[in-house]
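ok, trying the design again with the full structure, not the truncated one.
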């Protein structure tokens, strides 16, 4: 459903991405991993249409990303950043309703006819009912990121792009956030592409990983194939121990001191 062919991105003389080839099928959960500055966010911005490729082709459902209108793109894909929502003084339910903007006409009427039901459903799934009238600036970071997820769910996208969505969360909320995305994906079959800097979470949730290093793809495969001691040493320049998770069996990285 997403075809990335020989995509490069330059900022002036600097190459942020070089000849990226990547193919994503509907319903897959991909992780993008790689060191700081390797081009992960740049790649997400190209897919979301926020930025344009310098060369190569980026197609979503058989059409060039640049051929979609803003509105078409926002009905098809949603993006959630590290700090998904600013701490503004605005009630939770109103924020989630803002996710419906792509479906509203110029008078603000929702063209999806069951908008209220969609919002109610999201509020209850994300355990936000009790927070419904609370202003965003009075919530914890973990609660706020859950509201951010609710807002993108209200958008009913087919593709969800996450850029280090759990960075500021403690381990409870990291896991809760990822489980909520996982449940949503199972129920709706959406495609998820997540930049994750936590390799252990990536191994637990992603079907496949794209590994970037200095703007180039240096690996594509399952977490088992990608998260090997050698790969991590080469890409991140650390010398970790890689063990099997005692419950799920997926690879988990333990850092070793020099
Ligand atoms: P990552 O998300 O993997 O940390 P980025 O995609 O944000 O990396 O950035 C990749 C490289 O491109 C970095 O060296 C960064 O400085 C550079 N870069 C990103 N955006 C811009 C921009 N708008 N102008 C110039 N350079 C940029
Ligand atoms: Mg980034």
């Amino acid at each position: 459903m997403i075809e990335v062919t020989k995509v490069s991105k330059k900022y002036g003389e600097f190459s942020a991405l070089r000849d990226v080839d990547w193919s994503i099928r509907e319903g897959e959960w991909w992780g993008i991993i790689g060191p700081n500055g390797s081009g992960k966010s740049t790649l997400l911005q190209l897919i979301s249409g926020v930025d344009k490729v310098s060369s190569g082709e980026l197609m979503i459902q058989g059409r060039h990303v640049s051929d979609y209108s803003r509105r078409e793109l926002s009905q098809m894909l949603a993006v959630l950043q590290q700090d998904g929502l600013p701490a503004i003084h605005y009630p939770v339910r109103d924020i989630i309703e803002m996710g419906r903007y792509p479906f509203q006409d110029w008078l603000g009427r929702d063209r999806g006819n069951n908008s209220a039901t969609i919002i109610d459903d999201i509020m209850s799934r994300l355990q936000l009912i009790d927070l419904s009238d609370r202003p965003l600036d009075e919530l914890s970071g973990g609660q706020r990121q859950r509201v951010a997820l609710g807002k993108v769910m209200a958008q009913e996208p087919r593709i969800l792009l996450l850029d280090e969505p759990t960075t500021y969360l403690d381990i409870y909320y990291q896991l809760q956030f990822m489980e909520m995305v996982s449940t949503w994906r199972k129920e709706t079959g959406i495609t998820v592409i997540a930049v994750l800097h936590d390799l252990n979470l990536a191994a637990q949730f992603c079907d496949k990983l794209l590994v970037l290093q200095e703007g180039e793809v240096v690996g594509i495969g399952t977490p088992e194939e990608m998260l090997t001691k050698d790969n991590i040493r080469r890409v991140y320049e650390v010398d970790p121990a890689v063990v099997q998770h005692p419950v799920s069996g997926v690879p988990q990285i333990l850092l070793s001191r020099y």
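Keeping the full-length input from now on. Residues 40-41 surround magnesium ion (ligand 2) (CB under 6 Å).
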